[in-house]
Design goal:
With 283 residues, the protein is of the alpha/beta class. The protein contains ten helices and eleven strands. The longest helix has 23 residues, at 7-29. The structure holds NADP nicotinamide-adenine-dinucleotide phosphate (NAP). NADP nicotinamide-adenine-dinucleotide phosphate (NAP) is lined by residues 141, 164-167, 169-171, 188-192, 195, 208-211, 229-232, 262-263, 266.
């Protein structure tokens, strides 16, 4: 039977540390970390994420600004706002909630954010820095996964690590972070032949595909650490992961639940990046 990795508890510990660090920064340097979040349109899921980011900032004592812009906002207006925030000393991190409405070019917006304030780590400069291992910010979800693996006491060095999914937001940076910790990393995707043969080799299996209950017990090695990044809504409205918890849990040594695993870590790592950005202004 697996031990359940409690993402809420790990997240709470990191937030406590950030809160203390925020107080210290204000006392010693007069700096309060500040995050600006931009949301365009009214996608319901995005609204929930943005509200949670605002709440997260309040919890750890950060300054925050939220720009809720109408769906018909023009690219020029959006880029103008990003430029204003790039030049605002109170703001250390800028995040534009994706996806944007179709008429807005996400790439242009990502490129417009000052890489020093790019707390999502989506700007190509920051992506490149992650590749060469000389980074300030780590992408939030993969960084959260690394914290969860760390919380199990697992030494990644030399372990067979398999990541299912190769998105720019999760799969690819996840593989890079595991590699930096000396894992032997394999990335799988929809064209992988005999997926089960690969996943059964994994000591550490990270699943990020967006297909409910896709990974079943027969795909998992005995004693594996299994991290489920998936967040899928079932017909009854309940949240479920990419891993079939019932059949995988008896085989794994550690496993993340959904909800309550990776999910709570993502915003916490965003807060961590905002702290880093604020501290970098002192250098
Ligand atoms: P994505 O951009 O849709 O990428 C999915 C990846 O899974 C692709 O690389 C795809 O392969 C691969 N894939 C799809 N079907 C597969 C199959 N049958 N076998 C093997 N690989 C397959 O998704 P994403 O943005 O990475 O997100 C993945 C999941 O994580 C989603 O459920 C999302 O909601 C969740 N998520 C959670 C958080 C969080 O905070 N917890 C954050 C981000 C994402 P191809 O490249 O070949 O198409």
């Amino acid at each position: 039977m697996a031990q359940i990795i409690n993402g809420k508890a790990v997240s709470a510990t990191v937030r406590e540390e950030l809160k203390a660090e925020c107080e210290r920064l204000q006392k010693e340097y007069g700096i309060r970390p500040g995050l600006a979040v931009i949301i365009v349109g009214d996608d319901p899921a995005s609204k929930v994420y943005v509200n949670n980011k605002e709440k997260g900032c309040a919890e750890v004592g950060y300054y925050s600004e939220v720009y809720r812009l109408p769906a018909e906002t023009t690219e020029e207006e959006l880029l103008c706002l990003v430029e204003k925030l790039n030049n605002d000393d109170k703001i250390h991190g800028i995040l534009c909630q994706l996806p944007l409405p179709k008429h807005l070019d996400e790439t242009k917006v990502i490129l417009a954010i000052d890489p020093k304030k790019d707390v999502d780590a989506f700007h190509p400069e920051n992506v490149g820095k992650i590749m060469i291992g000389n980074y300030s910010f780590l992408p939030c979800t993969p960084a959260g996964v690394m914290k969860l693996i760390e919380s199990t006491g697992t030494d990644i060095t030399g372990k067979e690590c398999v990541v299912i999914g190769r998105s720019n937001i999760v799969g690819k940076p996840q593989a890079m972070l595991l590699l930096q910790k000396n894992g032997t990393v394999t990335i799988c995707h929809s064209r992988t032949k005999d997926l089960k043969e690969v996943t059964r080799r994994a000591d550490i299996l990270v699943v990020a595909i967006g297909k409910p209950d896709f990974v079943t017990g027969d795909m998992v090695k005995d004693g594996a650490v299994v991290i489920d990044v998936g967040m899928n809504r079932k017909a009854d409205g309940k949240l479920t992961g990419d891993v079939d918890f019932a059949s995988v849990e008896p085989k794994a040594s550690f496993i993340t639940p959904v909800p309550g695993g990776v999910g709570p870590m993502t915003i916490t790592m965003l807060l961590q990046n905002t702290m880093t950005a604020a501290k970098n202004t002192l250098k």
